[in-house]
Write a structure and sequence with these properties.
Layout lengths: L3 H7 L5 H17 L1 H13 L6 H12 L4 H12 L3 H14 L5 H18 L8 H10 L4 H17 L2 H4 L3 H12 L6 H14 L4 H5 L1 H14 L5 H17 L5 H16 L4 H30 L11 H16 L14 H16 L4 H11 L5 H13 L6 H18 L5 H17 L6 H16 L3 H17 L14 H15 L8 H14 L6 H20 L7 H25 L7 H14 L6 H16 L4 H15 L5 H18 L4 H16 L8 H15 L4 H15 L8 H26 L10 H12 L6 H17 L6 H4 L2 H12 L5 H17 L2
Helix pairs in contact: 1-2, 2-3, 3-4, 3-6, 4-7, 6-7, 7-9, 8-9, 9-12, 11-12, 12-15, 14-15, 15-17, 16-17, 16-18, 17-18, 17-19, 18-19, 19-21, 20-21, 21-23, 22-23, 22-24, 23-25, 24-25, 24-26, 25-27, 26-27, 27-29, 28-29, 28-30, 29-31, 30-31, 30-32, 31-33, 32-33, 33-35, 34-35, 35-37, 36-37, ...
Protein name: Karyopherin beta
Subcellular location: Cytoplasm
Main location: cytoplasm
């Protein structure tokens, strides 16, 4: 039998059969005797003579670590089931291997140490691992041992919860900073130390708050940016980026004394990776200051004293940083891959966020750059000028931007004829930004025809620019919608609608989806349809026929598809077609009736041919939901044929998004059919209640189910009495779910759940209003208690406040004779309605609902 070393080497073989056989042997060994398996791997990793050391270390790491949470828990349990003596033996060997002569094996050992520590430290085990490694750093001249130990510490800091390591922060920081000093003779050790410092920045908060320690840390990092080793420079700038994100409030002194100069110098570095990180530093400054300003304004709106300070570093540095950023935007080649992140892209992104941060201050110098270079003989400068112009259209005031944009628009349209594809691509992107943010600069009688002609020509150009041309046309459709919205008889876009749709349909006929050209065209068609005026309906009618033809063709060839890539492309095509069809149905409403039978037939065929886990079912269901809303009661003729698909989706708990869409379809059906849906409600309610009890179904579906109860009650009105008690019991249970103050994911979930509960209560109250509201009486005390709890929760959303106000109004209207006066005169009710009416933070809709509710409550308590 082959040795463990031979098997490990075989996993690296170029022969697929040998490689797969070796992998199977390793999996079998792990399953048969995991303890012996990891011991063998550890010994092989520790063996200085073995050629399979790296493979052994990687196999050992993969035996105890995984990305997926479920798999990670399984591996953790399997490791902890090994007896303590054996685990200690393995850990000792791995720590010893950190000092091996083969630094590659030492680095893999560092990963193994981190993987084991990630399992044991949270369980109170191996608490001496950091202490033991710090001892390595202070008592050895072995450079490899120091380098790999620092890497292990860095990996542990990256993967372990900060609270577990806080007590050892001082020791870790001392060792890491010691290794990162400029007089460290080994650049490899210095690099590992800087990377470990990066990973430890969050849990050394207390150290960073102390000025003396902070000064020393900043000195060490700043000195590292001047290292002769490029990797150390890159890591040092990465460290500065992270420091700015985490400790912005403490940066004024260092920005003035060192960081301004160091980072501007870094952006000019001949080494692209160094320059990229220096540019990223200023992008981060701008992003943080945007957040700081938002926090400050939010506090002022709330009548509170701002606790966040915006030091305006980006604005202060603008005279130094902006010329460098603009220069870097010219650094590109025609052969650059559009998917590769490079210095030109980074600079463009930096300019965009800087404009959002500093506002008007960037306009004049950028406009000067544009005027100088927009007709430059070198295409890189033309492209940079157009990109720079587009990058500042969000942030500065509209008043300042309108004149230069209006002046530049004819030049931009003309530049869509530039011979260089990259220039045309950036021009199309900039035109999209103009049409999105400054559409008032586009005068329909002057600019619209040449602009649309240029964009349509672009659609027939390289796939690379199609997406941005489509984006521009989508924005134009949105911004130039008719004055009466969907009811407009015509719009500025109507004369061009047929030509645009025809051009985009040509794009969709291409065999490939290179640069997402085909997907962009389908998306643009959907948006064009959504914002179309009524005089374009003949074109939309012809479009719907073409889409149905294509869908039928895709179904006909479904069984001929072979290969994963071809199948994925086929599914994407069907998804795009369904999306267009959905938007057509939503746009024309009842006018879809003449072809409704054909649409439903195609969608049912699509549902039949799709696999259980296919996302096509989701797209088909969304189209059916739109058809349900459009046809209203006429949809009843399709329900018996469609119901099996809907109930199958409701039972498919593993595909929770599909299940959620199916829940929404129940609401669509009930709203459309009204009381005629009552005969289906027994099955609807039974299935929905079963789903609420499912331990497998994703929790995000459950708020939608609760909301659906309201749709059902609103549709069948008094007939909902048969389900009232069980529904109110389920809602009462859901009302008890709370979130910890620091569990932000749970806070969002609870807010969503409460919105679903409120939707249910509103539907039930409104549904029973016309029959017998007295059925609600036993449930009202709990209902008011729940509303009070939600109102007094500081994390509640504007939507929840609006729903509380609306429900109070509905209840007051349902009990106008003073029956619930004691509940309605509660102090919290008065405060809630007052806040809903008067707070500037609330939406207009919330204020209107609160005013109406106030009047209803007043009448019910007179």
């Amino acid at each position: 039998m082959a040795s463990i070393g031979e098997i490990l080497l075989n996993t690296l073989s170029a022969d697929q059969q040998i490689r797969e056989s070796a992998t199977t042997q390793l999996e079998t060994a792990a399953n048969e005797d995991f303890k012996q398996y990891v011991v063998m791997l550890c010994q092989e990793l520790n063996n200085e003579q073995s050629q399979a050391r790296i493979a052994a270390g990687l196999a050992l790491k993969n035996a105890v670590a995984a990305r997926e949470a479920t798999r990670r828990e399984e591996m953790s349990a399997r490791w902890m089931n090994i007896d303590a003596a054996t685990r200690d033996q393995i850990k000792a060997l791995v720590l010893t291997t950190l000092g091996t002569q083969d630094v590659r094996a030492g680095i893999v050992s560092a990963q193994v140490v981190s993987a084991i520590a990630a399992i044991e430290l949270p369980q109170g085990q191996w608490e001496g691992v950091i202490r033991d490694m710090l001892q390595n750093l202070s008592s050895t001249e072995n450079t490899n041992l120091r380098q790999c130990t620092l890497q292990a510490i860095g990996y542990i800091c990256e993967s372990i919860d900060r609270d577990i390591l806080t007590s050892q922060a001082n020791s870790i920081l001392t060792a890491v900073v010691q290794g990162a000093r400029k007089d460290e003779p080994s650049e490899a050790v210095r690099l590992a130390a800087i990377q470990a410092l990066y990973n430890s920045l969050e849990f050394i908060e207390d150290n960073f708050k102390r000025e003396g320690e902070r000064n020393y840390i900043m000195q060490v990092v700043c000195e590292a940016t001047q290292s002769q080793d490029v990797e150390v420079q890159v890591s040092a700038f990465e460290c500065l980026v992270r420091i700015m994100q985490v400790y912005y409030e403490m940066m004024p002194f260092y920005m003035q004394k060192a960081l301004f100069g160091l980072t501007v110098q870094g952006m000019r570095s001949p080494h692209e990776r160094v320059a990229l990180q220096a540019v990223e530093f200023w992008s981060t400054v701008a992003e943080v200051e945007i957040d700081q300003e938002n926090y400050r304004l939010e506090a002022i709106d709330n009548g509170e004293q701002p606790t966040h300070t915006n030091y305006n570093f980006a604005k202060a540095a603008l005279p130094e940083t902006l010329p460098v950023i603009l220069e870097l935007m010219t650094k590109q080649d025609e052969d650059d891959d559009e998917d590769d992140w490079n210095l030109c892209m980074a600079a463009g992104t930096c300019l965009s966020v800087t404009a959002q941060s500093v506002g008007d201050a960037c306009v004049a110098p950028v406009i000067q750059f544009v005027e100088t270079n927009i007709r430059h003989s070198q295409w890189q400068y033309r492209e940079a000028s157009v990109m720079a112009f587009g990058s500042i259209l969000e942030g500065p005031s509209q008043e300042l931007l309108v004149p230069p944009v209006a002046q530049a628009l004819p030049f931009l349209i003309e530049m869509m004829n530039d011979p260089v594809i990259k220039v045309k691509d950036s021009t199309a992107w900039t035109l999209g930004r103009v049409s999105q943010s400054l559409a008032e600069c586009i005068k329909p009688d002057v600019h619209l025809q040449p602009l649309i002609e240029a964009l349509v020509r672009g659609l027939d150009d390289s796939n690379r620019i199609v997406s941005n041309c489509c984006l521009s046309l989508m924005n134009l459709a949105d911004q130039l919608e008719g004055e009466q919205g969907p009811d407009s008889p015509t719009s500025h876009m109507s004369p061009y609608f047929n030509g645009i749709i025809t051009a985009m349909m040509r794009i969709t006929e291409r065999n490939s989806n290179e640069s997402f050209a085909r997907t962009s065209a389908y998306e643009a068609i959907s948006i064009m349809v959504t914002h179309s005026a009524r005089d374009t309906f003949p074109t939309i009618s012809a479009l719907s026929t073409s889409i149905l033809d294509r869908l039928e063709q895709t179904i006909a060839v479904q069984n001929e598809i072979v290969g994963v890539d071809e199948r994925n492309s086929h599914m994407e095509l069907q998804s795009n077609l369904c999306s267009v069809l959905t938007n057509v149905i939503r746009r024309v409403g009842k006018d879809i009736s003449p072809i409704a039978d054909r649409i439903m037939t195609v969608l049912l065929q699509l549902s039949t041919s799709a696999s259980k886990s296919s996302t096509i079912l989701e797209d088909a269901f969304l189209a059916i939901g739109a058809l349900t809303t459009a046809l209203e009661s006429e949809f009843a003729r399709y329900l018996d044929s469609f119901a099996p698909f809907m109930f199958s989706a409701l039972s498919n708990h593993e595909e929770h998004q599909l299940c959620s869409i199916a829940v929404g379809l129940i609401g669509d059906v009930c709203r459309s059919l009204g009381s005629a849906s009552a005969s289906y409600c027994d099955n609807f309610m039974t299935t929905l209640l079963q789903n609420l009890q499912s331990p497998v179904l994703h929790r995000n579906v459950k708020p939608n189910i609760l909301s659906c109860f309201g749709d059902i009650a609103l549709a069948i009105e008094g007939q909902f009495a048969a389900y009232l008690d069980v529904t109110m019991s389920v809602l009462a249970q859901a009302c008890n779910i709370r979130a910890a103050p620091t569990d932000y994911d749970m806070i969002d979930y609870v807010n969503g759940l409460r919105e679903g509960i409120m939707d249910a209560y509103i539907g039930i109250v409104q549904g029973l209003k016309s029959s017998d509201s007295s059925l609600l009486a036993p449930h009202l005390p709990h209902l008011f208690e729940f509303m009070s709890t939600v109102y007094n929760d500081p994390e509640r959303s504007d939507a929840l406040l609006r729903n509380i106000c609306g429900l109070l109004g509905d209840l007051a209207e349902s009990f106008p004779g003073g029956e619930i006066k004691p509940l309605l005169i509660s102090e919290w009710v008065n405060q809630c309605l007052k806040e809903g009416r008067s707070s500037r933070q609330n939406s207009v809709t919330t204020r209107e609902v609160a005013r109406w509710a106030k009047e209803m409550v007043k009448r019910a308590t007179m």
